[in-house]
Amino acid sequence: MFLRLAPLALSCAVLTGGLIATYPTGAAGPAYAAPASAAHAPVRQVPGAREATSVTRAPATPCNAPYRIDRTLPNGARWQLCWEMRTVEGLALTKIVYTPRNGRATAVLRSTALAQIHVPYDKGEPRYHDIGALGHAAVPLRAADCPLGERREQFVCVTTRARGHAYLKSVPEEQSISAQGTDLVVFAAFQVGWYTYLAEWAFSDDGAITPRVGATGSLSGFTTTPQYGWPIGVGARSFEASHTHNIFWRLDFDVAGRADDVVEQYDFTGSGTTKRRIKRTTFTREAKAVSEPMRWWRVVDRRVHNTDRHRVSWEINNSDSDRYRGPADEAFTRADVYVTDYRSCERLASVNPSPRCADSVDRYVNGERLTDPVLWVNVGYHHVARDEDADPMPTHWQGFRITPRDVTARNPR
Amino acid sequence: MGRRLVMLALAGAGVAAVAGAVLFVPGEQGSQAAGAVPRTPAPEDPLTSQEVARATAIASAGSRAHMAAGRIELLYVERDDDKDAPVRRRADAYLYDYGTDRLIVRTVDLGRGRVVRETVTRGVQPPPSTAAETTAAELLLAHRQYGKGVRDAFAKAGGGRLGSAAELGLRGLIFTPTGEDGPARRCGVHRCLRLFVRLPDGTWLDTSRIVVDLSAKKIHTLEW
């Protein structure tokens, strides 16, 4: 028999109605043993809402060692996920589950991976799509490349890292209340031509996720005329060509399971006025969105609530992009966030390698009603070389933030 | 990057027996090839090397003659991650037919041991395999002007006399034409690569205007 079901892990994960991944408090070690505070009391039933706390049966473990990552951070927050080095996308993370301290586990993402690194040069050419077979381009990591962590099959680093102050609050006549935060970090490095790309996901102990890519290695050495570059080396004879890295991530959110996920966009109207009125736009069909000052999005589950009876959601901010807009035949560069309905063959934002689907993310958006939204986030970084970039080139980073919004009823510190 | 010899396991029901046959499979399957310890994989685990070999055998069964002749190339095998699929382990085998310039994707149900879906398309180009990168480098070296340029640069970079393409560090990306007027326009249908070539001193050649047309077995120079 080639395929056998793994025995059910009766003591840990559960499925509620096959849709909500929840974990019983106290079932996963000391971090869960403390009694729930009032803020984490069982959910009061909202009409039509799914019960998020009941415990029924356990699913099979989604992945085995060494592909399993299960880390409880010092403040008690726990992240569970699987990784895979895929041929095209490189490092892919699947079945991402977050458990706040003293809280219940909640599924966040079914999968996430890089979806393109588009590199157009300011002089017009060349224009690269750097995701080829990233899985073939993974760089073996040395122990020093994975400080305080563990390497998985030599290409993936799983480690923890300080993230500075989680909070600091002064209290009159007493010591301040403060804590240092920690990230679980998962990353791999890929060599694509001159560049080495560091693809990294940081999972914070406050529930935030920070996907980012660092570009290092070497400058391409492409030279150009002064209007399209910056002089590198002695004098002003050789101008290194300026270029942009337009990096796309694909994020298949399954918030508390696949069902009932909705994407909302938030704006705050008013300019030159004293007031800012909140404006919510719900995407019912596939959409393209551009970033604006103060604009953000969230993926919200319509039927799962925290103990304050607020809908559980994950917020996406993409305000740090250089917002490159290419010519008509690169229409995939003309939005910062795309929302599409799930299709397995929609994998890359451009030069999609799968038949049965369109070639690029702008064409995935074709009016379908959203039932299982997938988000595509596009972050651009315009690189104008400087003398310090040679050589090796210092890492320049680009990325965005995903933060829990009402996953817990209060700071789960 | 090298290539890996994979001894095909005896295929299961519905698959031609290929005992003793040896196929070239693209080398780095990432973690897929590294899972050498036999065990029952969990749903999200990468394909084990045994699963890759089994999927390769099943997906190649109908194309063996063309593969032996070099007309059809197995690009790679990867785990099918479709969450709409029934819960069972599946693999997608990507094959390219240079004779007709068509991509063939065969989805293999590893439990049942057979192909459950085949898609044939033109104009969709998955990334090159390591074998295709080597073929592209051989075409580059066979080019009168560029071949000499590569050999001279290789020697200048401390590599001495270049024996074969395998001595070069190679990385290929699919080239898709966008408004080109020259012969590279054919790359809309042909399978074409841009090739990065790394020299022994760690530097890279400027190959940004060179396109290797694997379908036509020609080199195109971009005019810009």
* Class by alpha and beta content of chain A: mainly beta
The secondary-structure class of chain B comes to: alpha+beta
Let me know the average pLDDT of chain B.
Answer: 84
Strand order of the largest sheet of chain B: 3-4-5-6
Average predicted local confidence, pLDDT of chain A: 87
Could you please describe the fold and organization of this structure?
The complex is a heterodimer of chains A (413) and B (224). Chain A has 413 residues and is an all-beta fold. Chain A has one helix spanning 361-364, and strands at residues 14-16, 20-22, 68-72, 78-86, 90-99, 106-120, 127-129, 150-152, 156-169, 177-192, 195-204, 209-217, 223-224, 229-231, 239-241, 243-253, 261-269, 277-283, 287-289, 296-305, 311-317, 337-341, 373-383, 393-399, 401-405. The relative contact order of chain A is 0.16. Residues 1-58 of chain A have low confidence and may be disordered. Chain B is an alpha+beta fold. Chain B has 2 domains: 21-122, Nuclear Transport Factor 2, Chain: A; 130-221, Roll (Nuclear Transport Factor 2, Chain: A). Chain B is 21% helix and 27% strand. In chain B, helix 3 (130-142) packs across helix 4. The two termini of chain B are 31 Å apart. Residues 1-36 of chain B have low confidence and may be disordered. Classes of the chains: A mainly beta (413), B alpha+beta (224). Chains A and B meet through strand 4, strand 5 and strand 7 of A and strand 3, strand 6 and strand 7 of B.
Break the fold down into its secondary structure elements and pairings:
The complex is a heterodimer of chains A (413) and B (224).
Chain A: E1 14-16, E2 20-22, E3 68-72, E4 78-86, E5 90-99, E6 106-120, E7 127-129, E8 150-152, E9 156-169, E10 177-192, E11 195-204, E12 209-217, E13 223-224, E14 229-231, E15 239-241, E16 243-253, E17 261-269, E18 277-283, E19 287-289, E20 296-305, E21 311-317, E22 337-341, H1 361-364, E23 373-383, E24 393-399, E25 401-405
Antiparallel strand pairs in A: 1-2, 3-4, 4-5, 5-6, 6-7, 6-16, 8-9, 9-10, 10-11, 11-12, 12-24, 13-15, 14-15, 16-23, 17-18, 17-20, 19-22, 20-21, 21-25, 22-23
Chain B: E1 4-7, E2 22-25, H1 49-60, H2 64-68, E3 72-79, E4 90-97, E5 102-109, E6 114-121, H3 130-142, H4 144-159, E7 169-174, E8 192-198, E9 210-213, E10 218-221
Antiparallel strand pairs in B: 1-2, 3-4, 4-5, 5-6, 7-8, 8-9, 9-10
